[in-house]
Amino acid sequence: MDKFDKREHFSSKYRSPLSKRQVARANTGSLADENAYLKATIKEMIESARYNQQTQEKFYALELYFLEANSYELLIRRILTDLKRQLKLTQIELFLLDPQQETQQLIGEIYGKLNYRNLFYTDSIGSIKSVYGGDIQLILSNEDSDIAKLGPGMSQSVALLPLRRGNHIIGSLHLGSRDPERFHPGLGGEFLLHLGTVISVCIESSINQERYKHLSLVDLLTRAKNRRFFFQALATEIARSRRSKKPLSCLFIDIDHFKAVNDLHGHLTGDRALRSVADSVVPLLRQSDVLARFGGEEFTVLLPDCDLSHAEEIAERIRDKISRVDIANDKQERFRLTVSIGVSYWQEGQQGFADSEAIQNHLISQADKGVYQAKEDGRNCVRIVEGLALDSDTIPES
Q: pTM here?
């Protein structure tokens, strides 16, 4: 006899056998209860599967959204701004490992400083380890000690998500929610881990793309933008100025007697002189301004939303600063440079041009003429040549 056939497993007291009618009623009741239970269980499983499918589709859409970002700046915006909105988070923070500050320098030269209060760079893996308290693994928690690892906010639960490429940690993504039950140790973290992997791939890929972009748009000697970038920026700023009706100015900077520098001190010293000029100009400019090496010893500066008088002031500050910089040759002998600067200006409605190309030619030609006038006036000065450029005054892009 099977052990579950024994009466003591069903009742502590012996009772007389049930009639056939009583047994039928009992079986009918238990079957109905069992059916109801099974239906409820199946419904719950279906709802859970549907929720998981919706969650998976949502995360899949987010992954595509990140993968489609075609620049580092756009990717960071999608992570720090759009992800917060999509997941209805209270807080989000991104920490990126940047030991030699290469990423910050690279992005700064291409875009300038990205103004996100919740984007942080760290030069040590130790600072990321300190967040996780040892092993760097996903943390889902509503404990105060873990919530405190985010910056000040209203979060009641947090997800601390390590960002990995292979066996290497590249950063950490921190998510905070007002809902204390949103993130907790019992929650499955598979979707978040997969999302973290995708974000890691996107970050690394975007940085590599920016490196290639940097090589194509930056003069490697001076780290100023190159001629190609200047013409792209000029077209963009002309279009923006036409819409906003704000002024646009341009400076051409030419180093005086630069051939003599190479002849007397050597080409390596000439290279140092070029870098010195670029390094002197950058601190005097706004983030929206563009410094480019136009060719040889000539630089150009694009000044959006800057009228002629302010452009002339900036040019004079540049000229003065460069004239005070000491440059050492290979024998540690020191000398100084001077520059001649031409200034041009344009504003929609004040000067009539047929199209953007004509505006471009005007800005370049008039600034170039200003340089020649400064040379004729003895060099080491700033000059403005008034009047409109002729259609034939076209400066080729290459």
A: 0.65
